[in-house]
Amino acid sequence: MKSAMKITAVTLVLSAAVFSASAQETKESPAAKTPAKATLSAEELEAKFKTTLTEATMSGRWCMLTDGKMGPDKDEKYTITGVEKTADGQWTISARIQYGTLDFVAPVPVQVKWAGDTPLIIVDNIGFPGTAKYSARVMIYKDTYAGTWSGGDHGGLMHGVISRGKPSEKPAEKK
To answer: What would be the CATH architecture of the domain defined by 42-165?
Structure first.
């Protein structure tokens, strides 16, 4: 069923692209008359990335991949306390790591690459005492994230939403 939905989604995307291309050949689209949106500079993109992840919580789900099959989803949460650029493409993300009995804030060295205006966080072979070495590729888009990870002999997928502000700063729920 999932394969059929995936094939259907790909077919729809390809059909839309072909339709769009043929429509442009026959008449000018209204979008072509609208001036292009200004592209953000590298400094503006980096500032937006920093704002998105500073004092942010990434909440979502992850699953293991075993023999090409996805396992059940499990909840995950990453609390980011700060983000700093240290050198060209090199960044440090200060993250609270909670895994099993571990609970600590660690400076995580990462690379950030850009796909247009979309940042891709690259973690390569990073380990902490008591853990395996992990690698990951995580895309940030608007207030969401999605990626893949590996740690030793296992790995999987991850996705979720990003919220900002310390939990204590959020208003209490009304009863």
So the answer is: Beta Barrel (2.40)
